[in-house]
Amino acid sequence: MSARRLGPTTRLVTPLLLVSALTAFAPPPATAPTAAPAATPAPKSAEATGTGGAVASVSAEATDIGIAVLRHGGNAVDAAVATAAALGVTEPYSSGIGGGGYFVYYDARRHQVFTLDGRETAPATATSGLFLENGKPLAFGDAVSSGLSVGVPGSAQTWQEALDRWGSRSFADLLRPAERLAEKGFVVDQTFHDQTAANQTRFGYFPATRALFLPGGQPPTVGSVFRNPDLAATYRELARQGTAALYRGDIGRDITSLVQRPQVDPASGWNARPGQLSTADLAAYRVRAQAPTEVDYRGLDVYGIAPSSSGGTTVGEALNILNTFDLAHASSSQYLHDYLEASRIAFADRNRWVGDPRFVDVPTQGLLSQRFADSRACLISPTSSLTSPLAPGDPNNPGAGCVSSGTPAPTTTEGTHTTHLTVADRWGDVVSYTLTIEQTGGSAMVIPGRGFLLNNELTDFDFTPAVAGVPDPNLPGPGKRPRSSMSPTIVLKDGRFDFALGSPGGSTIITTVLQVLTEHVDRGLSLEQAIAVPRISQRNRSVTDAEPAFLGSADAQALTAIGETFTLNPEIGAAAGIQLLPDGQLQAAAEPVRRGGGAAAVVDPAPTG
Ligand code: GLU
What we know:
It contains 19 helices and 20 strands. It is α+β, with helices and mostly antiparallel strands. The strands form four sheets. Strands 1, 2, 3, 8, 9, 10, 11, 12, 13, 14, 18, 19 and 20 form a 13-stranded antiparallel β-sheet that branches. Strand 18 and strand 19 form a beta hairpin.
């Protein structure tokens, strides 16, 4: 069923009309950006087309704030920081200054892509046995709601670093709209209610968390206004003192004291293991500026995040594999078969080779080489699915033929939620930024009086070697960053912006980005359409996740007939992206349904009708 194999790819030469329509915007005013009324954002729309800049996120309030920054002359980095700070208010279970993330930036003037790794790190005292108790690994659930799972947060420093390098507004100015939003509140929707309800038990263990998110002991009702004055005060403190307040000041001391002595309601009986995060760990934390991953996919330059995330190398390797197939002319089921197989293979290699490069020798260039991809692509049969777990290849020695060697490493437990935003400005600069506190609700520990949740990112480490006797690049270590799947992506055509996207969803982030990207590039769907199609996800597991709308389809039957086994996954990912249209307009695209629907907006909408 495999699609026709292709020879070497050729570069597309479609001319670009990028910023002509975007540059006609007025010069920046001297005043700071202001937020739209917090409780009454513009109605959510999954698509918006126009000029002057664009924002796509999951939250109407956060998107509105990003658009206001762009409208007042801020650039994409300014708007991304303001949007991210607002997501800390409206998406507190998925992001915020208690967590971390990966920031990808396209600088239109320099035609260059830069990245920041703002991943959380383990304390200096962490060992490979961080999650062992009496020699046995902790149950995942026991580790999540604890001080032990909390890594040094990276988000606030990421925002400051991005602004220092590429921004045009002050950190303080850009926190202000989110501070006001936290003060005024936002209207609780079904998604926020449901996420709270899903965490009700563990939020109840911690009095500060219960007080904030379970008013009267219950999740906030849909339609009520949720205010977070403590977070507003925390943002004010950060605005006054800068990130030093968190990495060397009072906020930091509050973080470490809660991690070391979790404040649990004794009546709950919950054993919240303490962590060893110290003020020295916070002071030592540095966001890492590093080169993006880059692959050539059908003449497009696809940029992603290098390790410590596995996003860029895994999406990149899968694209290199798919480079050898003609997906544009394949039948629908042929295309999907090749997509699943490329992902299966890339995950086999990810699991064996990718971890924090400061601690393990990650063969990033090898994983991204076309030669290695060719040595893996030839495993794909048109008439049958590969069997998982599939053994990894060796990117250091790709060899000439089809190679799998060693012992397969399964894809280990990962959370399922975080959040993503994409921003483009009138000058053609673009940010693709995925941020998280890991699990929906993170560690479930709100710092008393501070209004934000601490992450449980360290549970992204493997608690024990994934396969006994096989080197595991993702064991805990002192100051180490756990392997991520976050895949903020920017795609250029002839050195200029073409489209950008990203998604939440734990390890399904990688497959979501891969599927949306290939649906768009190969199957001719607009980004908006590509985001909407039913998703399937293969991560070197014996079963392939599939959304309900896919199960029972003709494609599902065709793939089942050649050996694929599907398992229901109610919802895979929640993508948000922006594409440049051939006429120079920007089209922002978000989810129509998943995660309650996303919010896409542009500064100057195109006339309708
Ligand atoms: N912790 C996950 C990662 O870094 C992201 C959170 C999620 O989407 O589950 O890959």
